[in-house]
């Protein structure tokens, strides 16, 4: 990394965190919790159908800054807005940031009029 890149990162990172950051908690696999400010992307939802019913998988991309969380690994979790998200994939690492995807899987209950009993 050049001197200019390091200088630009030192100036841009605090402004980026302050303007677009969201408070999260990084939970390492050993249980250590670290409060941090992350850039959290838009959430998307995928629906999968299997033998055990319908599942909904919510995913979003997250950026954590290494000055707050030095290491992000698979099997870690991130708490965002009170919900625990599993780290699904490490997308990229730079000397100052870690970009990764988090996911939550949930069962979906389907209610249809023909399933309801008439009383």
Brief description of this entry?
The chain is α+β, with helices and mostly antiparallel strands. It contains one helix and seven strands. The chain has a six-stranded antiparallel β-barrel.
CATH topology heading? Thrombin, subunit H
* Tally of distinct domains: 1
Distance between the termini: 71 Å
Number of strands: 7
Low-confidence stretches: none
Strand order of the largest sheet: 1-2-4-7-6-5
Descriptive overview:
There is one protein chain. By secondary structure, the protein is α+β, with helices and mostly antiparallel strands. 15% of the residues lie in helices and 50% in strands. The protein has a 6-stranded antiparallel β-barrel with strand order 1-2-4-7-6-5.
Main traits of this protein?
119 residues; alpha+beta; Thrombin, subunit H; 6-stranded antiparallel barrel; 7 strands; 15% helix
What layout of secondary structure does this protein have?
Elements: H1 3-20, E1 22-27, E2 33-40, E3 44-50, E4 53-65, E5 77-80, E6 83-93, E7 97-107
Antiparallel strand pairs: 1-2, 1-5, 2-4, 3-4, 4-7, 5-6, 6-7
């Amino acid at each position: 990394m050049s001197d200019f890149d390091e200088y630009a990162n030192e100036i841009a990172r605090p402004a980026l965190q302050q303007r677009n950051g969201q408070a999260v908690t990084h939970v390492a696999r050993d249980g250590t919790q670290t409060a941090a400010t992350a850039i959290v992307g838009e959430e998307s939802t995928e629906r999968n159908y299997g033998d055990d019913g319908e599942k909904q998988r919510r995913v979003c991309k997250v950026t954590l800054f290494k000055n707050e969380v030095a290491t992000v690994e698979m099997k870690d979790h991130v708490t965002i807005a009170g919900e625990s998200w599993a780290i699904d994939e490490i997308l990229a690492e730079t000397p100052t940031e870690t970009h990764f995807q988090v996911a939550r899987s949930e069962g979906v209950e389907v209610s249809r009029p023909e399933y309801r009993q008439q009383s």
